[in-house]
Amino acid sequence: MKTRIASTVAVAAAIVLGATGCSLVAPIATATPYGPSDGVNVDVGAVDVRNIMLVADESGENFNVVFGAVNQSGEPQDLTITFIGSGSQQASAEFEVPTGNTLFGDPEGEQTPVLVTLDGLEVGSTIEAYFQIAGSPEVPYQVPVLDGTLEEYRQYVLPENFSAEENSDSTVGDEITEADEVADQSKVGDDVTDEEAAQAE
After folding, report:
1. Where is this region: Disordered (predicted)?
2. Three-state DSSP class for 99?
3. Whose CA is closest to 127, among 33, 32, 40, 36?
4. Which residues, including other chains, have CB under 8 Å from residue 72's CB and lie 6 or more apart?
């Protein structure tokens, strides 16, 4: 009778150890920080970069840098992301990150999207990137490259001539400003002429 009880206790102990052995040896996956989406999370200096990814434009040759940023430092931070392509290629994207939460890469948002161009970069791959806040060391990370196959990313697929349109708008603005200055100078000249005419009378 004692032998049977001892055997039963031994079997029960073996079952308990077998059931808990996995957590004793293997790491618990849910305890490891990870990005729940297709992008990745990177903490650099006073800025937390969230769900960053590159999204190809309509041509597939330029890539929109899409991410959310959390800046709790109390002042704007300058963020530079340098992407390292094949061979000696590299492209840098610079952002001024306001305080609070900010979304970058949304053409309908407050921040103008920033694109990078790297020959040979393919959708579905990852690219090595270095994140740096002024005064802080660089943080390396692999960033995924996506396109608009998934519906939730289609809004970040920019038209092929997006950069050209932005540059064109800026140039037009400069031309209007110069024209205004010329008009102002002409008006001043006209005023002086009127005063001289009055004195002459």
Report:
1. 161-201
2. coil
3. 40
4. 46, 48, 99
Q: How far apart are CA 102 and CA 37, in angstroms?
A: 17
Contacts of 197 (CB under 8 A, 6+ apart): none
Cα–Cα separations (whole angstroms), residue 159 to 61, 66, 75, 135, 165: 11, 15, 33, 35, 10
Q: Name the residue type at position 93.
A: A
158 touches 57 (CB < 8 A): yes
Task: Find, among 41, 43, 117, 126, the residue nearest to 79 by Cα.
Answer: 43
Domains for the chain: give ranges and CATH numbers: 38-156 (2.60.40.1940)
pLDDT tens for each residue of the chain, 201 residues long: 555 555 554 545 555 445 555 545 555 544 444 455 799 999 999 999 999 999 999 999 999 999 999 999 999 999 999 999 998 899 999 999 999 999 999 999 999 999 999 999 999 999 999 999 988 999 999 999 999 999 999 999 999 988 655 544 333 333 334 444 444 454 444 444 455 544 555
- DSSP strands (E only) in 57-89: 62-71, 77-84
Please choose, from the candidates 147, 158, 133, 144, the residue with its C-alpha nearest in 3D space to the C-alpha of residue 81. Answer: 133
